[in-house]
Amino acid sequence: xxxxxxxxxxxxxxxxxxxxxxxxxxxxxxxxxxxxxxxxxxxxxxxxxxxxxxxxxxxxxxxxxxxxxxxxxxxxxxxxxxxxxxxxxxxxxxxxxxxxxxxxxxxxxxxxxxxxxxxxxxxxxxxxxxxxxxxxxxxxxxxxxxxxxxxxxxxxxxxxxxxxxxxxxxxxxxxxxxxxxxxxxxxxxxxxxxxxxxxxxxxxxxxxxxxxxxxxxxxxxxxxxxxxxxxxxxxxxxxxxxxxxxxxxxxxxxxxxxxxxxxxxxxxxxxxxxxxxxxxxxxxxxxxxxxxxxxxxxxxxxxxxxxxxxxxxxxxxxxxxxxxxxxxxxxxxxxxxxxxxxxxxxxxxxxxxxxxxxxxxxxxxxxxxxxxxxxxxxxxxxxxxxxxxxxxxxxxxxxxxxxxxxxxxxxxxxxxxxxxxxxxxxxxxxxxxxxxxxxxxxxxxxxxxxxxxxxxxxxxxxxxxxxxxxxxxxxxxxxxxxxxxxxx
Length: 488
Prior knowledge:
The chain is built from 12 helices and 17 strands. It is α+β, with helices and mostly antiparallel strands.
């Protein structure tokens, strides 16, 4: 549609000439007849002026032009006075309607503004809810809700304080601020909204305050209460999460040596990284210990099937059975046979274990490791000259059959040589269904790193896996690096 036929009444109203012409025509009809029925156009034109966003001055100007044409040219004083009175009536009705319509228009605008603001606040609350559910640590929850409460309510500042149970091993109080809130001992401050924060079991654990809020009506208060409720739910989850994480980390630490032994003539280091967020206890473990009665060191690394408490129980059984068996048996295959029997005897499910157990004997010229690899990834040796090779052969997985085939292999280590033990979390790194770090990449990394310490080598392997994973690893990983230092 185009041209005049396509123009709306509002567009016509916005054209001053069109509106003034129609006003003049209606005005002149009323002057001529004096009939009250002809005043009706004054109402319609005034409402139309408001809808078309014309100002009161523009309405007055249209009336002035109409008066100049219909009243001023009349020379008869009596007739002119009559027309002037009718002109005043027409203007009075027009102004009254304009005022009523304009007041209603402003009220509608204000209602629309309030509804839009309320919708924006609800949208912000929804967005904050999503963010709070993702921010599990307590400190992150309290920081986020403080900043967003100030933003959503348009306050000048906000402050939240949280009382934490001491069992979480955190500070007794957490305070978060946004902007510059007044001191707590300041005199009463206007335009302040407050809401309580609750933790587990609905107990009040803190308060959030927003200062300098422009509108402290029931709607704004309800928004803050809703934000506080969302934050309280997140705080309760964070408290549970913190306790569960603390338990998981404590249990995981109990399955690993607190520190590796200091062995003269040996450079030794290890790394462990739990899968995901560390909330679930994994089955990977490692251990290095002195075998009493002989000048030999026991070395173990393994991976128990599954995760969680049951896997942790089996991991503890494996680790401490190895230590106990090493006191009775000097041959690695016999130690592993005793471990296999213990797993079959103690387990109540079908869990199994892959493991490598070795015995290291040092000599003036290096060291010798006799080891059994039971379903575990074969260890790698980086020679002093830079060559890298896998050593050993595969034996049967532990905890599957009562008489596994176990074979002891031997590797000799000279000055500058390094033996690397690892779990499959190191060499089975996949992303979007494709392997991104495997045995080939690990061997290439060992060739590239040069003659570095055991600590540096273990660190480089861990970093490579985490970088390839592009985030937390999907599987636990453990690395043990054993290096014979070069002779000074």
